[in-house]
Task: inverse folding
């Protein structure tokens, strides 16, 4: 491995997907369980390839009934309007009081394209380029209303300070947006962007735009190389590479025992067609997480339970306490926003910075 040993507390996140479940209440129970374990955030998958609840709507309903856990829905940027996407994510950040993220994804199938009838399915490379532009314009729109732009002075009849509103005038390959946004600047300034960097053509988009990159590989050496590569590419894009969090993405089956359920799985995950799978017990999982993190392979882990209710409970009540005992994971939330959980600063508004520049 080329990475230096991991420093600081690791980051943990979990998926709360419940296929075939359309009620928000079971998702709320899982989110609260993850919050009990002080996890950084939960994700909820979404897409146009099958029936299911809208992840943004479900997490917006969950937000007022949780207090610290970050909430990260998948948002498909294909066939959707960037202006509406950014407004919905900004609204989730307001409803959650600064705990929103989003996971941009693309839709490559002809069936999904026919659902909308606007255009034929495009090549994945083009769709991921478009996704990157959606992230870029979303950030511009969030900044287009400066902090404090809303005056709401009934006596003078002034609702907004027009000097603090900015047109973004963005021209992309497939869309253009003028702005400004209709939603006040989110509590986090910019909600957290989470991108699966192992998807084809998503790697460079993650290096350029992601706050958190997910990497689904089964070997710690390959994971460390991906982490180094993403940070190096981020620096080439003019970013601070230390501000990019790289999480190992694993599917987990924690079974019914404390240790490995199958020979070979206790030492590490095995590759499958759906991504790396760890099958074992919560004690062995704690060992794996400890070893990979201390070796500098990743900044943390995003875990997708095969049995959501069973495996998340065993993760929170079995694996997490062991990591806390080793002083590798927090015992409480020191802040209230997702950016604070991840150790990321609230970004300054890009237009406010330009307005304050005398040059």
Result:
């Amino acid at each position: 491995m080329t990475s230096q040993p991991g420093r600081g507390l690791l980051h943990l996140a979990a998926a709360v997907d419940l296929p075939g479940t359309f009620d928000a209440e079971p998702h709320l129970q899982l989110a609260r369980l993850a919050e009990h374990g002080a996890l950084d955030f939960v994700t909820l998958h979404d897409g146009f390839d099958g029936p299911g609840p809208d992840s943004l709507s479900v997490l917006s309903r969950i937000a007022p009934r949780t207090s610290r856990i970050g909430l990260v829905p998948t948002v498909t940027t294909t066939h959707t309007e960037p202006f509406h996407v950014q407004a919905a994510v900004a609204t989730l950040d307001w409803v959650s009081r600064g705990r929103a993220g989003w996971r941009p994804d693309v839709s490559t199938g002809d069936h999904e394209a026919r659902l909308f009838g606007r255009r034929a399915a495009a090549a994945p490379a083009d769709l991921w380029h478009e996704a990157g532009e959606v992230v870029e314009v979303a950030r511009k729109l969030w900044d287009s209303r400066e902090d404090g732009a809303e005056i709401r002075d009934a006596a003078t009849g002034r609702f907004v300070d027009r000097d603090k509103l900015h047109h973004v005038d963005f021209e992309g390959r497939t869309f253009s947006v003028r702005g400004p946004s209709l939603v006040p600047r989110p509590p986090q300034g910019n909600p957290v962007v989470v991108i699966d960097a192992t998807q084809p053509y998503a790697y460079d988009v993650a290096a350029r735009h992601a706050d958190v990159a997910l990497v689904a590989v089964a070997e710690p050496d390959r994971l460390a190389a991906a982490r180094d590569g993403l940070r190096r590419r981020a620096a080439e894009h003019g970013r601070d590479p230390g501000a990019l969090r790289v999480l190992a993405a694993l599917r987990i089956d924690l079974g019914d025992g404390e240790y490995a359920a199958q020979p070979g799985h206790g030492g590490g995950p095995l590759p499958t067609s759906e991504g790396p799978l760890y099958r074992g017990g919560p004690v062995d999982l704690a060992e794996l997480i400890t070893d990979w993190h201390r070796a500098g392979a990743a900044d943390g882990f995003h875990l997708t339970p095969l049995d959501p209710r069973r495996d998340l409970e065993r993760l929170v009540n079995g694996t997490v306490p062991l990591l806390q005992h080793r002083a590798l994971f927090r015992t409480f939330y020191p802040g209230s926003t997702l950016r604070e959980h991840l150790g990321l600063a609230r970004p300054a508004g890009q237009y406010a910075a330009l307005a304050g520049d005398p040059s």
Q: What stands out?
A: The chain has eleven helices and 13 strands. Residues 1-6 have pLDDT under 50 and may be disordered. The first helix runs from residue 24 to 36.
